[in-house]
Write a structure and sequence with these properties.
The protein has 375 residues and is of the alpha/beta class. 42% of the residues lie in helices and 13% in strands. Strand 2, helix 4 and strand 3 form a beta-alpha-beta unit. Helix 1 runs antiparallel to helix 8. The structure holds pyridoxal-5'-phosphate. Pyridoxal-5'-phosphate binds next to helix 3 and helix 4.
Length: 375
């Protein structure tokens, strides 16, 4: 059994994907071109924002925004404590300070009450200037963007939606990647919409920001690549990745998002009441980058993972370590008691196999092992 089965997806779309790749090779046009333009237009349309700017990966997508907003030393950026390292890394990379905020025990997304407390604490200390909030759509579930927006407006902060895992999710019909001043996603192969290597994208309605990002990602270009008006980076999505994504985006829209939600219903029907199953608030849709359950203890979680492994079932611990405990952030001297929920989740959460090509037999088999185990 695969944790995320990319081979079944390829086998289903082999003819389309192979011929799309072959066409790029035949044309010998490997950078930019109509494939990238088409993908950007289709992604913007799907998410319902004005601009999509593709780039090299999800981390650089966020870094480009930090550059565009001139985030630097002395600035505070608010980041959930329970997320992939990137979300905090891109802040420190600019010399700014990531302020980690605990998450909600049900949604695993940034706790907006603790967020506001954190902002006030930074203001009262007077050492750093609060600038940006980065809510993460963890495991495919959109963060509470409605509340985050209220807080951002109140304190005059920018919002970057980190939708690396969130593409396809929505709140009351409004799609992930459309919240905040700008949003980013990742096309890392295992994300809800993945390519065959690295890739990422930025979404925004702001024309000026879109122009700036299009310059920053190509060496700070002005009129053209050889007219350089600012310091930028080289961050492009390869044409081959774009052409693969054009095929996969169609599959994602046509059935994959529905398929993972069907798998979720089957899992939850079997497991509800036995372990803590994912909480999807009213009006929210998750794109299920992960299906993550919560056990009663670390011992129980680790024992279940071992039992699943014995039965040939892969599972993953996302995340082993909270952000505030990462060695790279040691200089900030965090108080462990500020992160009660994240600390608990790192001990008790377990992600089970989840992808659009899972069959119900596998789901039922996994659930049988979990049910037999009593953790
Ligand atoms: C994967 C991920 C990223 C980084 O994306 P890459 O394309 O791997 O650089 C950022 N944030 C979160 C929450 C992620 O899961």
């Amino acid at each position: 059994m695969e944790f995320r089965d990319l081979k079944s997806q390829y086998n289903k779309y082999k003819i389309e994907i192979d011929s799309a790749i072959q066409e790029v090779i035949n044309n010998a046009n490997f950078i930019g071109g109509k494939e990238v333009n088409t993908l950007e237009r289709r992604l913007a349309e799907y998410v319902d924002v004005k601009h999509c700017i593709t780039c090299a990966n999800g981390t650089e997508a966020m870094t480009l925004l930090m550059m565009a907003w001139d985030i630097k030393e002395g600035d505070a950026v608010f980041v959930p404590d329970f997320t992939f390292f990137s979300t905090g890394e891109i802040v420190s990379f600019r010399g700014a300070t990531p302020i980690f905020v605990d998450v909600d025990k049900d949604t695993f997304n940034i706790d907006t009450v603790k967020l506001e407390k954190s902002i006030n604490k930074v203001i009262n200390e007077g050492k750093l200037t609060p600038k940006v909030i980065i809510p993460v759509d963890l495991f495919g579930l959109p963060a509470d963007h409605i509340q985050v927006e209220k807080i951002a407006n109140k304190y005059n902060l920018k919002v970057l939606e980190d939708a690396a895992q969130g593409f396809g999710g929505s709140i009351n019909g409004r799609k992930a990647c459309s919240f905040g001043n700008a949003a980013t996603t990742s096309f890392f192969p295992a994300k809800p919409l993945g390519c065959y290597g690295d890739g990422g994208a930025i979404f925004t309605d702001n024309d000026e920001l879109a122009n700036l990002l299009n310059s920053l990602k190509v060496h700070g270009k002005g009129e053209n690549k050889y007219d350089n008006v600012r310091i930028g980076v080289n961050s492009r999505l390869d044409t081959i990745q774009a052409t693969i994504l054009n095929v996969k985006l169609t599959a994602f829209i046509e059935h994959e998002l529905d398929d993972v939600n069907r798998i979720c219903i089957l899992y939850t029907k079997n497991l509800k009441g036995i372990v803590e199953t994912p909480v999807i608030p009213e009006g929210y849709v998750s794109s299920f980058a992960q299906y993550t359950i919560k056990l009663k203890s670390k011992e129980g979680r680790d024992a279940l993972q071992a039992k699943l492994k014995e039965n040939g079932i892969p599972s993953m611990v996302y995340y082993v370590k909270p952000m505030h405990e990462q060695g790279a952030f040691a200089e900030y001297n965090h108080d462990d008691s500020d992160f009660e929920v994240t600390n608990e989740l790192c001990d008790t959460a377990l992600s089970l196999p989840m992808h659009p090509y899972m069959n119900s037999r596998d789901v039922n088999f996994i659930c049988k092992i979990v049910l037999k185990s009593n953790y």
